[in-house]
Q: What sequence folds into this?
């Protein structure tokens, strides 16, 4: 699969970007030259130098260190959101597909209502109600993504439920939970996994967007959105913070987007038209 | 497709869309009730007296049960009332009506720019699929799609306004001065259009390649018709139909996505109205603004979907097959 990926346009870049992001997130305390929140007013808005490779922000904090810790937040939030929404979506999707018509209609109706909002507007409305903060962002953005997984899980389960091997299991007296665990989930998890990979850059973008607007992760936590906002405020005095935090976001979202597409084409080329 | 099956499809889509909008209203109102603590206290602050809190609760309808609030919302909606601004008592509809044209103008200009760049990119890509230029455009397209619009906005502002001084930094331009307003529209349009350039280039390329593999194109080639003529005259028209449907759906997404460009470039619009209202906890304005965006989003999706059904023969025959006993 990795050989396939490296042959695609930008494949090597995707592998490098995602590997680098994961390394930075895991080894942030070892790699960051300074503590991410260490304030040094005397060094504020410094240009890149040997002392501070990417310069400093308006409070004299080292930009490189904050970007490295930002990778941890971007990856941590996106993986948490995907894990929650994937689990809830798959459960709801399977329940909808295997339940009587009224339950199915109710669940599909809920999915329709949630998807009748543009993603960022729903995220904004939810954060407006429950307030910003790391935990709230994870939970609220997860709600936005549940229908993505729920719809795919439901349609895949509907396709499967009348298959001969499922019918055979039923005739042999297998219980519903056994059929779901041993036959439905293993058969639908492929497209769900691909969708999860393709949603990672979207989650990173929404989290950074909310933080950029001051409605996501609260400062002084080093979210890339917070960093970009700090850079935007001091744009006329120093371009470095905005430039480097913007580039970090582009590298992460582009890397995951290319990786997701490669996974989709490798695992199931038929999905190219649907995902 | 028989007119009966078309009619039933149309009715089904309309009912689904209406239910989604009604459901979103219930969700919006329910969300206001879920605000931790009392929403009126949150708006007025902890020093507010119980009388002022009770008065505000009554004014924004929070003293009524949920079902009554939903009914009141819809009964007011019929006469064009979206509620009142908490702080200066202005009708929410008036605020939304003042902001909406700016957002629609931004979304339309972004979509037109994306089409103007995306369609030629798709044609160039489809001309030699798998070639060096095709692969480069594929990479650039994913780059455009995955780059967040707020990053593009900040970069454009930094380069073209702060560094080079070519474009104005903030605002929507002088009222009545069309040229100034257009000048202020350039950077937000570029920021919002970037992602859609990539979408259009990719979608249209794959549609073009699908049409190019059909037998009538092979016949045209056998007759010696030039490749450029085949691509533009005989392939683009059928291939662009699915792209138009996606563009329709994308227009609604652009209305929502405009919030970043509006906040960063300090433009008045529906996105910045919702954002400012969230920051000041002006819940009736948030509710009204989000409702209008949801309504437009659902409507544009509906129109796009129906136009695809009416214009695409494959969709029509699929529906006809479904309606057969």
A:
């Amino acid at each position: 699969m990795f050989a396939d990926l490296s042959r695609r346009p930008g494949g090597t870049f995707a592998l490098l970007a995602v590997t680098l992001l994961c390394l930075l997130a895991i080894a942030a305390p070892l790699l960051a030259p300074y503590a991410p929140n260490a304030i040094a007013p005397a060094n504020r808005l410094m240009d890149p130098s040997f002392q501070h490779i990417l310069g400093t922000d308006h409070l004299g904090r080292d930009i490189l260190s904050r970007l490295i810790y930002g990778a941890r937040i971007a990856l941590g939030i996106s993986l948490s959101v995907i894990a929650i929404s994937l689990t809830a979506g798959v459960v709801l999707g399977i329940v909808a597909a295997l339940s009587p018509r009224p339950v199915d209609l109710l669940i599909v109706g809920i999915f329709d209502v949630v998807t009748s909002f543009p993603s960022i507007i729903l995220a904004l409305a939810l954060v407006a109600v429950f307030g910003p903060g790391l935990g709230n962002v994870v939970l609220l953005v997860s709600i936005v993504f549940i229908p993505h997984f729920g719809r795919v899980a439901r349609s895949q389960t509907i396709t499967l439920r009348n298959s001969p091997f499922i019918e055979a299991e039923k005739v042999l007296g297998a219980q519903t939970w056994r059929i779901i665990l041993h036959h439905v989930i293993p058969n639908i998890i492929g497209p769900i996994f691909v969708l999860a990979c393709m949603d990672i850059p979207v989650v990173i973008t929404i989290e950074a967007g909310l933080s950029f607007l001051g409605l996501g992760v609260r400062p002084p936590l080093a979210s890339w959105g917070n960093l970009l906002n700090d850079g935007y405020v001091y744009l006329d005095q120093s371009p470095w913070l905005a430039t480097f935090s913007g580039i970090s976001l582009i590298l992460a979202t582009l890397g995951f987007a290319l990786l997701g597409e490669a996974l989709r084409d490798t695992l199931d080329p038929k999905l190219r038209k649907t995902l | 497709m028989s007119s009966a099956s078309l009619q039933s499809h149309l009715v089904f889509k309309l009912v689904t869309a209406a239910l989604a909008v009604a459901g979103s209203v219930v969700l919006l109102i329910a969300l206001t009730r879920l605000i931790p603590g009392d929403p009126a206290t949150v708006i007025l602050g902890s020093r507010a007296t119980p009388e002022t809190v009770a008065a505000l609760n009554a004014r924004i309808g929070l003293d009524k049960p949920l079902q009554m609030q939903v009914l009141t919302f819809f009964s007011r909606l019929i006469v064009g009332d979206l509620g009142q601004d908490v702080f200066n008592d202005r009708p929410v509809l008036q605020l939304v009506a003042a902001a909406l044209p700016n957002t629609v103008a931004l979304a339309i200009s972004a979509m037109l720019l994306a089409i103007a760049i995306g369609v030629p990119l798709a044609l160039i890509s489809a001309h030699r699929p798998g070639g060096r230029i095709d692969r480069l455009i594929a990479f650039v397209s994913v780059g455009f799609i995955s780059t967040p619009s707020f990053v593009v906005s900040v970069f454009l502002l930094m380069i073209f306004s702060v560094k080079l001084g070519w474009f104005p930094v903030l605002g929507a331009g002088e009222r009545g001065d069309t040229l100034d307003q257009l000048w202020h529209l350039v950077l937000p349009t570029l920021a919002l259009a970037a992602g859609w350039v990539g979408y259009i280039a990719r979608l249209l390329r794959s549609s073009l390649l699908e049409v190019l593999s059909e037998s009538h194109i092979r016949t045209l080639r056998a007759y010696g018709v030039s490749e450029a003529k085949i691509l533009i005259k005989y392939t683009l028209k059928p291939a662009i139909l699915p792209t138009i449907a996606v563009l329709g759906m994308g227009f609604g997404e652009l209305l929502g996505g405009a919030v970043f460009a509006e906040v960063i470039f300090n433009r008045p619009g529906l996105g910045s109205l919702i954002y400012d209202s969230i920051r000041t906890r002006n819940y009736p304005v948030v509710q009204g603004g989000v409702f209008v965006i949801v309504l437009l989003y659902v409507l544009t999706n509906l129109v796009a979907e129906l136009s695809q059904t009416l214009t695409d023969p494959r969709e029509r025959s699929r529906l006809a097959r479904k309606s057969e006993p």
Summary: The first helix of chain B runs from residue 3 to 33. Chain B has a mean pLDDT of 84. The two ends of chain B are 14 Å apart (CA to CA). The CA atoms of residues 41 and 49 of chain B lie 9 Å apart.
